[in-house]
Amino acid sequence: MLAFTACGSDSTSSTSVLPLPPRIGVTSVKGDPESELLAAIFARVLEDGRFRVARKDPVELDRAGYYQAIQDGEFQLIPDFSGDLLSFVYSQPDAAPLPSTPTPSAPATTQAPIPVTTTTLPPTTVAGADTTDTTDTTETTGATTTAAVTTTTTSTTTTGSATTDGATTTTVPAVPSNGHSVAEQVLAINAGMPDALVVNNGSLAENRPVVACTEAAMEANASTQLITLTNLASVAPNIVLGGSAEFLADDSAGYPAMQRYYGGEFKNTVTVDDADLAAAIADGDADCFGMNSLNPLITTEKMTIIEDDQLMAPSNAVVALIASTSATPDVMNTLDAVLARLTTKRLNQMLNEIVVNGTDPFVVANAFVDTL
């Protein structure tokens, strides 16, 4: 009996229950469709990753309010934007000065246009086959090149004007090191925040000033590459540039900055009030417009955002502001993985669905995550 009791006691003492990890409280700013959509996306991907998530009601707080609320433990995660958060962090009374960033001091030299040419390839005959494939294929150079035959596919991916035939090759220009990139902003944010807070690596989706060209303008300039602002400057004599009075005078991210970073002699510039932007696009008052990257008109009017390849305007990418106690490597990797798939175009489309069509952000978020 003593031996039995001893064994039973040992068995009981060796049994332990592992504590559950704390829940990650995810919230958003009330009445802000961007924040509510992104919070719903973050909560869903964390739930799919088997993390314990508590979806909190949206908060009626400004950035200073939720910045402190996370440190106080009221919740653990809220969406934010890198550029806006960076400015806030370094505006605090005890913050170190944010390093100044270099800017061009003189107008840029405009590059020559990059032509997009189309060549018809001869029919391809497959040896040993009963039939001959006589379908013409085309090869396009200047942007992305793909030559397809019956049994072999040769592709070329080109960034800028560099092209390599015979294999799939991507040439990516170095990101300017001027403090405007997302990576540089994330490093500065994490260095400037209290130890209780951290942000992840950021996304491809941004909320910032951009130049977007109309569908008609893209078609009219289809013979030349029009992907970047460098490209736009090269075809500027064909382009009427529109924007608000603020954009045309903005020395940091508007037309004057474009002249310093990219150059270009535009055909004309026209002032368009924000309230008149939709009508100006529909009426063709200009070919390209300075506007916000998340303006729903970009989606509804099928406009193309032109890439700011020299990072003229500081980045302002989607990030997750999260309590350090919840920011385990697995959590951060999960957030980084979804944000790596979130582009400005996709975010614009989802916000258009919410703002214009009235769809619930929760429904839109789930539809996006289902595609990942």
Key attributes of the depicted protein:
372 residues; 5-stranded mixed beta sheet; 3-stranded antiparallel beta sheet; 34% helix; 16% strand
SSE layout and pairing:
Elements: H1 2-14, E1 24-26, H2 33-48, E2 53-55, H3 63-71, E3 77-81, H4 82-89, E4 117-120, E5 138-141, E6 144-148, E7 153-157, H5 182-192, E8 197-199, E9 209-213, H6 215-220, H7 229-234, E10 240-243, H8 245-249, H9 255-261, E11 268-271, H10 277-283, E12 288-292, H11 297-300, E13 304-306, E14 318-323, H12 329-339, H13 344-355, H14 361-370
Parallel strand pairs: 1-2, 10-11, 10-12
Antiparallel strand pairs: 3-14, 4-5, 6-7, 8-14, 9-12, 9-13
What does this structure look like?
This protein has 372 residues and is α/β, with parallel strands linked by helices. It contains 14 helices and 14 strands. It has helices at 2-14, 33-48, 63-71, 82-89, 182-192, 215-220, 229-234, 245-249, 255-261, 277-283, 297-300, 329-339, 344-355, 361-370, and strands spanning 24-26, 53-55, 77-81, 117-120, 138-141, 144-148, 153-157, 197-199, 209-213, 240-243, 268-271, 288-292, 304-306, 318-323. The chain has a 5-stranded mixed β-sheet. The chain has a 3-stranded antiparallel β-sheet with strand order 3-14-8. Helix 2 crosses helix 12, helix 2 crosses helix 14 (361-370) and helix 4 packs parallel to helix 5. It is globular.
Shape by Cα distribution: globular
* Oligomeric category: single chain
What's the gyration radius in Å?
A: 26 Å
Share of helix, binned: 25-40%
Identify low-pLDDT runs.
1-6, 125-172
Biggest sheet: strands, sense, closure? 5 strands, mixed
Looking across the biggest beta sheet, what order are the strands in?
11-10-12-9-13
The count of strands amounts to: 14
